[in-house]
Design a protein that fits this description.
Elements lengths: L25 E11 L5 E10 L1 H11 L9 H16 L5 E5 L2 E2 L2 E2 L5 E5 L2 E6 L2 E2 L7 E7 L6 E4 L6 E4 L5 E6 L3 H7 L6 H4 L7 H5 L2 E6 L1
């Protein structure tokens, strides 16, 4: 399967080419802060991803134009613009559904990048395109449809919800791979895996926040 928008230096492996059976080549620790407003609608999803040392050092080499081994504000801004464009092709690896149906999300206006302890950190704050009340079952997670990037929440407290209505409950779901495959066996055809645009298979393995309301 393929990701377009690759940078020739492979600095942005987020947009690299991976085969259908490839294992993840990039790893990131994720944090999610969900905000529900006083009107009981979802206002924003603030994502923070902290990338592994290998990918982070690759980004450093690509964007460190003055070769001082430090990414200054201008260099970080350039990295943010390139990563923003790459992730936009894949809806920023977001998974937002209500009762199993995808929710349209507005792209974040910008990505904020920083470089801390030899790790690249990106933050962005997408919002629903329309009104999104937490009714029924709301599921939110992140996944890479090409399986090239593994993004996960290392602990349940990395997912926070502010303003959760009293009639809602929240849980963090970490699917068992064997169970997920068994439940979706009918979808796992050769045609499914050979789709050059990627697949939704990652959704069934993705750690996700579930809100159940009403």
């Amino acid at each position: 399967m393929r990701l377009s928008g690759i940078v020739s230096s492979a600095a942005l492996l987020l947009a690299s080419i991976a085969s259908a059976g490839a294992h993840p080549q990039l790893f990131a620790e994720a944090k999610l802060d969900l905000t529900i407003g006083p009107d009981q609608t979802v206002k924003s999803l603030r994502h923070l991803w902290r990338f592994d040392d290998l990918f982070s050092s690759t980004v450093l080499m690509k964007f460190d134009k003055n070769s001082d081994l430090v990414l200054d504000a201008e260099e970080l801004a350039a990295a943010a613009l390139t990563i923003h464009a790459s992730l936009a092709e894949y809806n920023y690896f977001q998974m937002v559904t209500v009762d199993g149906k995808d929710v349209a999300m507005s792209p974040p206006a910008k990505l904020v990048t920083s470089y801390e302890n030899n790790q690249l950190v990106i933050e962005f704050d997408p919002k629903p395109k329309g009104t999104l009340p937490p009714s029924g079952k709301v599921s939110i997670g992140v996944y890479d449809p090409t399986f090239y990037t593994a993004i996960d929440f290392t602990s349940d407290d990395k997912i926070a919800v502010a303003g959760l209505p009293k009639d809602c409950s929240r849980s963090v779901v970490r699917p068992d791979p064997d169970t997920a495959i068994a439940q979706n066996q009918g979808k796992l055809t050769d045609a499914f895996f050979s789709d050059p645009t990627g697949t939704d298979l990652g959704k069934i393995f993705a750690t996700r926040l579930e809100l159940t309301c009403g």
